[in-house]
Design goal:
It contains 10 helices and 7 strands. It is α/β, with parallel strands linked by helices. The protein has a single domain, classed as 3-Layer(aba) Sandwich (Rossmann fold), CATH 3.40.50. α2 packs parallel to α3. The longest helix has 14 residues. It is globular, with a radius of gyration of 18 Å.
Length: 244
């Protein structure tokens, strides 16, 4: 395990190593994070991706939506991987002087980031100064009310894992209602919400859904999420604007 991975391992929560490069998916798989985030972004705009990780999703958005994009990533190993994808990356945490050096943005992304912060509301409030007039926040946040978490709780299990809804590095947990409450308390109005299908989740390999051809699974889960989002939404994808 690298030194960075060792720093990210959460002692006593998971016995498995927490790889700093674990979130490195590519493509625009229908009904998943990049797919829905891109649906909110207008071509030719400016985007700040806070917590861009290795830049896999950032690169896809830059290519597919033809946007000018800046990534911000505190982990040096992930930041270096993101730079290799051909866009500007700040290695560090968000600071109020970011718009002074890089200008303001039409969209600020928090893709699987807010749940890792001790005070996500403070971050949402702080970045408001980096948005252009009419600019939006786009965030993906895991749904702790997902059926897989509920099922484990029935048997007294609340086990952390290296990635996914029960990622051992998560500090905050959200349902759809608490996500909306977070944004409203931080001075935003939630314009739209989408749900990711989570077809990649290993739990589905042990359900009847494994019998559905893979090319149809995402569509099936998307429909289930529309009908019963509390149970089947893997993540909530939020589009929010400053209130007032």
């Amino acid at each position: 395990m690298s030194e960075t991975a060792a720093r990210e391992a959460v002692t006593g929560l998971t016995s498995q190593p927490v790889d700093p490069l674990r979130y490195n998916s590519k493509g625009t798989t229908p009904y998943e994070t990049a797919y829905w985030a891109m649906s909110f972004i207008k071509p030719g705009t400016r985007v700040l991706d806070i917590g861009c990780g290795t830049g896999s999703v950032t690169e896809t958005i830059m290519r597919e939506r033809n946007v000018e994009i800046v990534g911000l990533e505190p982990n040096p190993e992930r930041a270096e991987a993101a730079r290799g994808r051909g866009f500007a990356v700040i290695n560090g945490i968000y600071a109020k002087d970011v718009p002074d050096h890089h200008g303001k943005f039409d969209y600020i992304l928090f893709l699987d980031v807010l749940e890792h912060l001790s005070d996500p509301s403070a971050m949402l409030t702080e970045v408001a100064g980096a948005l252009n007039e009419g600019g939006c926040i786009i965030a993906s946040i895991p749904n702790v009310a997902h059926w897989s978490v509920r099922f484990d709780l029935l048997f007294g299990k609340f086990d952390y894992v290296p990635l996914g809804i029960m990622d051992a590095t998560h500090l905050r947990w959200f349902t759809r209602k608490s996500v909306i409450r977070l944004f409203e308390a931080s001075g935003y109005h939630v314009e739209q919400i989408r749900n990711t299908a989570g077809e990649w989740m290993p739990q589905y390999r042990r359900t009847p859904l494994r019998l559905v051809p893979r090319r149809y699974r995402g569509r099936v889960l998307d429909q289930l999420g529309r009908i019963w989002y509390g149970m089947f939404a893997c993540q909530h994808i939020i589009l929010a604007k400053r209130a007032g």
